[in-house]
Design brief:
Length: 535
C-alpha cells in the first residue's frame, strides 16, 4: 500500500492515538529542546512547535497542555514574538517559562519592565505558596535564572508564588485556570526540583497519561514503516553509529529483505571496527550488509591535503561519489532511510518538500557527513522513523530491539573518522600509528571501567615530532594527544579529570607498543574555547 500521508504530516502528528502530548511553543531559548526532553523523561510525548502555531492547530494536535518557552526577546521589542491570543480560550493548562511567563503576564493584562538587576545563573527561589505546581518542593530551591526583564504587576486572577533576592515576582499562578509562570528554568539540571515541576505540570495538571514508552514507539514505528515502504526497496547507509545501526534493526524487522544496508569503508574507522560491524550484523542478526571497499580511493583523494576544511570537504565529496555509484549499482531504490533525530528536524531549515507528492526529499546525506547535496538525478524519498526521538530515546529503542551493547553505548564518532585525528596529511602509515594508539586508549579506559563516564575519549596524532631517549638511543618521533571530555550533548564540554594511573598506563603502553611514538600528552582544554575534535 502506498502512503497518502506526507512525511511532514506523519512527523507532526505522531501516534496521537498512542500518546497524550504537550505542545511547547518555542520562543527561541537555547533550552527549548531541553523542555521537550524533560517531558519525555516522564513518559509523556512533547513537541516543540513554532511560537506562531495557532490555537486551532493546537486543538487539532490534541495537546493536553501548553508550555511557552523562554527566549531572547523582550515583550516590548518591536516585532517581539507572541502567541495567538485564542490559546487563552482553549481551557488548557499553560506554563510560561522565563520569556513565556513575561509574555503570559503581558498578554493577560500585567506589566513587564526591565529589571534594575539582571539575574543570570544560580539564584535561590523562596516559594511563597506551593500550590499544585510546586507540590513536593522544599520551601527554598536553587534555580537557574537568565533574564533582564521582570513582571512588575500581575495580571488579574494571578498571585505571586515565588521570589528571589533580586526578583520579587519569580513565579506566578492562577490556580483556577491552571495557568502558571516561572521566571527560572525548571528544565535546566541546575534547578533543584525542576523535574518535579515538569512532572507536576504534565501529569497532575494536564492529566497526561504516561504512555510514551519505547516499546509502544517501536510498535507504531514498525507499522508506519510497513505502510510507507510497502513492497518497495529501501537503502540504508550504515555508519556503525547507534542511530543508523538501530535503524537497521528496526527496518529489518519491518520490511526484511526489502532493506539493503551498505557500509562504505573509507579506511578511517578504528581498529577492527568495520569487520566487527559487518560480522555482527550478518552472523548474529542475519542482516546482510554490502561492504564497500573504498580505502584506496579515499587515501588517494587525500594525498597532499593538510588543511582541515579541505580535508573534510574532500572526504565528503568522495563519500557522495561512492554512495552514488554504489546505490546505482545495487539499486534502484525507492527510499533512503536516515537516522535523522528530532534535534536535526527542529534545527534543519534546509529540508525540502516535493510539491507534487508532498514527501520530503533528501537534500543532503545527514548524520554521516556534513556535506553538500546529492546530485539532482539521485534524489530519494526519505524514511526517517527516528525523527521524533532524542538520542537517549534511540539508545532505549536499541536496547528493546537487541542492538548489541558495543554499538549502543559507543562514543560519538565523526563521519570523517580518524582522518580528522591524523593532523596534517593522512597516510596509511600515520593512520596505522593512530589506530594502534587509539586501540590502547580504549582498552585502558574500559579496563578502568570509566568508558561510560566520559562523553568521548580518543587519540590525536600530531603533525610534529619531538626528541626522546629510549635505551641509550636518542629518538625523534611522533606525539599522541589523549583527548577525553565530559559533556551532556557535545555542544559544550569539559576535559575529563581522568585518574593519573589511567593516564600513566595509557602513556606507557603507547610508547612501548606503538612504533614511532615517543611522547604522549593530555589535552586540558574545555569547549569552548577549543572544540572536541582537533580538526
Ligand atoms: P566538535 O569537534 O565540533 O565536535 O566540538 C562536537 C561533536 O561532534 C562530533 N563531530 C562530528 N560528527 N560528523 C559527525 O557525525 C562530523 O563531521 C563531525 N565532526 C565532529 C565530535 O566527535 C563531537 O562529538
Amino acid at each position: 500500500m502506498t502512503t497518502t500521508k506526507t512525511a511532514q504530516e506523519s512527523r507532526r502528528r505522531p501516534d496521537n492515538a498512542l500518546a497524550d502530548s504537550i505542545a511547547i511553543l518555542d520562543f527561541g531559548s537555547q533550552y527549548s529542546q531541553l523542555i521537550a526532553r524533560r517531558i519525555r523523561e516522564v513518559n509523556v510525548y512533547s513537541e516543540l512547535l513554532p511560537c506562531s502555531t495557532s490555537a486551532a492547530e493546537l486543538k487539532r494536535l490534541n495537546a493536553r497542555g501548553i508550555i511557552l518557552s523562554g527566549g531572547p526577546s523582550s515583550v516590548y521589542d518591536d516585532g517581539a514574538p507572541t502567541v495567538d491570543k485564542e490559546i487563552w480560550k482553549l481551557g488548557l493548562p499553560v506554563l510560561g517559562v522565563c520569556y513565556g511567563m513575561q509574555l503570559m503576564a503581558h498578554q493577560l493584562g500585567g506589566t513587564v519592565e526591565p529589571s534594575d538587576v539582571r539575574e543570570y545563573g544560580r539564584a535561590t527561589v523562596s516559594i511563597i505558596r506551593h500550590g499544585r505546581l510546586f507540590d513536593g518542593l522544599d520551601p527554598a530551591v536553587e534555580s537557574w535564572m537568565s533574564h533582564g526583564d521582570s513582571v512588575t504587576q500581575l495580571p488579574p486572577g494571578f498571585e505571586i508564588t515565588g521570589r528571589t533576592m533580586d526578583t520579587p515576582v519569580a513565579a506566578i499562578a492562577d490556580e483556577e485556570r491552571l495557568w502558571y509562570g516561572v521566571q527560572f528554568h525548571p528544565e535546566v539540571i541546575h534547578t533543584v526540583g525542576g523535574q518535579e515541576i515538569i512532572r507536576n505540570f504534565v501529569v497532575d495538571l494536564c492529566k497526561c497519561t504516561q504512555s510514551w514508552t519505547m516499546d509502544k514507539f517501536i510498535g507504531a514505528a514498525l507499522a508506519e514503516v510497513k505502510e510507507q515502504a510497502g513492497e518497495r526497496r529501501v537503502l540504508l547507509a550504515l555508519s556503525g553509529g547507534v542511530d543508523s545501526s538501530t535503524l537497521a534493526f528496526l527496518l529489518h524487522q519491518a520490511i526484511g529483505d526489502k532493506l539493503t544496508c551498505m557500509f562504505i569503508d573509507q579506511g578511517f574507522m578504528r581498529k577492527n571496527e568495520p569487520e566487527w560491524l559487518v560480522e555482527t550484523f550478518e552472523r548474529d542478526f542475519n542482516i546482510s550488509v554490502h561492504f564497500i571497499k573504498a580505502r584506496d580511493r579515499f587515501l588517494e583523494r587525500l594525498k597532499g591535503v593538510v588543511d582541515p576544511e579541505e580535508k573534510r570537504k574532500a572526504i565528503g565529496a568522495e563519500f557522495i561519489r561512492v554512495f552514488e555509484e554504489e546505490s546505482k549499482r545495487l539499486g534502484p531504490f525507492d527510499f533512503l532511510a536516515q537516522g535523522t533525530l528530532y534535534p536535526d528536524v527542529i534545527e534543519s531549515a534546509g529540508t525540502q518538500v516535493d510539491p507534487k507528492t508532498g514527501e520530503r526529499v533528501a537534500v543532503k546525506i545527514k548524520s554521516h557527513h556534513n556535506v553538500g547535496g546529492l546530485p539532482e538525478d539521485l534524489q530519494f524519498k526519505l524514511i526517517e522513523p527516528f525523527s521524533k526521538l532524542f538520542k537517549d530515546e534511540v539508545r532505549k529503542v536499541g536496547l528493546e530491539l537487541g542492538v548489541p551493547e558495543g554499538i549502543r553505548v559507543r562514543h560519538p564518532f565523526p563521519g570523517p573518522g580518524l582522518a580528522i585525528r591524523v593532523l596534517g596529511e593522512v597516510t596509511k602509515d600515520r593512520l596505522r600509528t593512530l589506530r594502534e594508539a587509539d586501540w590502547i586508549i580504549r582498552e585502558e579506559i574500559k579496563s578502568h571501567k570509566l568508558y561510560r563516564q566520559v562523553w568521548q575519549i580518543f587519540g590525536v596524532l600530531l603533525p610534529t615530532k619531538s626528541v626522546g631517549v629510549m635505551g641509550d638511543q636518542r629518538t625523534y618521533q611522533n606525539q599522541i594527544v589523549i583527548r577525553a571530555v565530559t559533556s551532556e550533548d557535545g555542544m559544550t564540554a569539559d576535559w575529563a579529570r581522568l585518574p593519573y594511573d589511567l593516564l600513566d598506563s595509557i602513556s606507557r603502553r603507547i610508547v612501548n607498543e606503538v612504533p614511532g611514538v615517543n611522547r604522549v600528552v593530555y589535552d586540558i582544554t574545555s569547549k569552548p574555547p577549543a572544540t572536541i575534535e582537533w580538526e
